[in-house]
């Protein structure tokens, strides 16, 4: 995943200024920086929710810049949100099922595809079970998402994002609201993926433990990037963020 010269302004505020970095394929890349640094805005640009005033985003050589958020999601770009977004009136299992694609949803198409459609439904059910188990949500599969505490809602969002086997997974503050067991589960899930992961996170123990690479944002600019050990010792980063 590659971000080139991405800039975003909100009126007079430059949320991102010519941001450049590359997230290694199949690796976990952390994006850190103080509040207001532009981390969520960067995720919005990568996932297609916000059009940058300049710059490009590409994934495995494919330019995503002109694609809508929906098209990017279909192309394997999935994310979770700093403020969780789940379907409260659906159960946990239904939330995950709804995240899977249902192609050819018209009556004649359904009729023509009938036998294969049943196979497809079985496969989807199987995938839902798999992802729920991975995220430790099997006991909660029939609970309504609205009734869950924030930690569990975050895991539901993670399960939704994983269901379609994304090529790029963006996680915005995934440990926030999680208890120690849930953090351990999250860590296991994230480190076990073959997907490229981009992670915004304030929990430095978690970040240093899972990331192969870090990008540090401050006031919308990349002030450092590299392996976690180097970033930890970087004087500029310490001054701006780590203290
Ligand atoms: N929708 C918006 N309208 C105006 N300003 C915004 C909007 N979203 C973010 N900002 C501003 O852009 C900057 C970066 O915000 P954000 O990307 O949320 O930072 P972070 O996720 O690193 O805390 C901040 O100054 C914030 O106030
Ligand atoms: Mg944010």
UniProtKB/TrEMBL annotation:
<dbReference type="GO" id="GO:0016887">
    <property type="term" value="F:ATP hydrolysis activity"/>
</dbReference>
<keyword id="KW-0547">Nucleotide-binding</keyword>
<dbReference type="InterPro" id="IPR003593">
    <property type="entry name" value="AAA+_ATPase"/>
</dbReference>
<dbReference type="Pfam" id="PF12399">
    <property type="entry name" value="BCA_ABC_TP_C"/>
</dbReference>
<dbReference type="Pfam" id="PF00005">
    <property type="entry name" value="ABC_tran"/>
</dbReference>
<keyword id="KW-0067">ATP-binding</keyword>
<dbReference type="GO" id="GO:0005886">
    <property type="term" value="C:plasma membrane"/>
</dbReference>
<dbReference type="InterPro" id="IPR003439">
    <property type="entry name" value="ABC_transporter-like_ATP-bd"/>
</dbReference>
<protein>
    <submittedName>
        <fullName>Branched-chain amino acid transport system ATP-binding protein</fullName>
    </submittedName>
</protein>
<dbReference type="InterPro" id="IPR051120">
    <property type="entry name" value="ABC_AA/LPS_Transport"/>
</dbReference>
<dbReference type="InterPro" id="IPR032823">
    <property type="entry name" value="BCA_ABC_TP_C"/>
</dbReference>
<dbReference type="InterPro" id="IPR027417">
    <property type="entry name" value="P-loop_NTPase"/>
</dbReference>
<keyword id="KW-0813">Transport</keyword>
<dbReference type="GO" id="GO:0005524">
    <property type="term" value="F:ATP binding"/>
</dbReference>
<feature type="domain" description="ABC transporter">
    <location>
        <begin position="1"/>
        <end position="242"/>
    </location>
</feature>
């Amino acid at each position: 995943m590659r971000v080139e010269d991405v800039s975003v302004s909100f009126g007079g505020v430059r949320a991102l200024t010519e941001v450049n970095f590359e997230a290694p394929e199949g690796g976990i890349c952390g994006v850190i920086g103080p509040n207001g640094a532009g981390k969520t805005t960067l995720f919005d640009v990568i996932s297609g929710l916000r059009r940058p005033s300049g710059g490009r985003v590409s994934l495995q050589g494919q330019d995503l810049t002109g694609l809508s958020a929906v098209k990017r999601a279909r192309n394997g770009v999935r994310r979770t949100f700093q403020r969780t977004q789940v379907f409260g009136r659906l159960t946990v299992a239904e939330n995950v099922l709804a995240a899977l694609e249902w192609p050819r949803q018209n009556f004649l198409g359904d009729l023509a595809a009938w036998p294969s459609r049943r196979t497809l439904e079985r496969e989807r059910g199987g995938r839902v079970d798999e992802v729920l188990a991975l995220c430790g949500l099997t006991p909660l599969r029939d609970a309504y998402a609205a009734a869950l505490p924030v930690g569990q809602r975050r895991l539901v969002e993670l399960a939704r994002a994983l269901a379609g086997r994304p090529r790029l997974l963006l996680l915005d503050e995934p440990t926030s609201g999680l208890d120690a067991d849930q953090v351990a589960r999250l860590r296991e899930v994230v480190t076990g993926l073959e997907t490229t992961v981009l992670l915004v996170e304030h929990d430095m123990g978690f970040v240093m433990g899972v990331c192969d690479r870090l990008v540090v944002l401050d006031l919308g600019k990349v002030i450092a990037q590299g392996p976690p050990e180097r970033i930890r010792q970087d004087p500029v980063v310490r001054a701006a963020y780590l203290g």
